[in-house]
Design a protein that fits this description.
The protein has about 110 residues and is α+β, with helices and mostly antiparallel strands. The protein is built from one helix and four strands.
């Protein structure tokens, strides 16, 4: 079965060559954009033209993936801060205990 691309739902053409005042002019739909990126499967750089409406699902998936990475990095950072906070607290407790033992159990004022 042969697949055909349907007409634009907005009634436009992505690119159309017209003659204006005797000179050729290229009319480009504002929704026809070039997307630059790296294919996550191959690692190769892509520069592909297409309709922004058609790109929406792909870009939304990419946005979700990037958000997920950001959330994971934030959680990792938080866990590291909690760990360092516990280590600092433990070090302060040890220092305070040593100070009390060396000072004969007296509390400083």
């Amino acid at each position: 079965m042969k697949v055909h691309i349907a007409d634009c739902p907005l009634g436009a053409k992505c690119e159309e060559l017209k003659v204006v005042e005797g000179k050729p002019a290229l009319y480009r739909c504002p929704w026809y954009i070039q997307v630059h990126g790296i294919d996550p499967n191959t690692g190769q750089e892509n520069r592909t033209w297409g309709c922004a409406i058609a790109w929406m699902p792909t870009l939304m998936i990419n946005t979700a993936n990037e958000s997920r990475k950001g959330a994971a990095a934030t959680e990792s950072f938080r866990n590291e801060m909690v760990k360092q906070g516990a280590e600092t607290q433990q070090a302060l407790l040890v220092t305070a205990e040593r100070a009390l033992l060396q000072g004969g159990g007296k509390v400083w004022k």
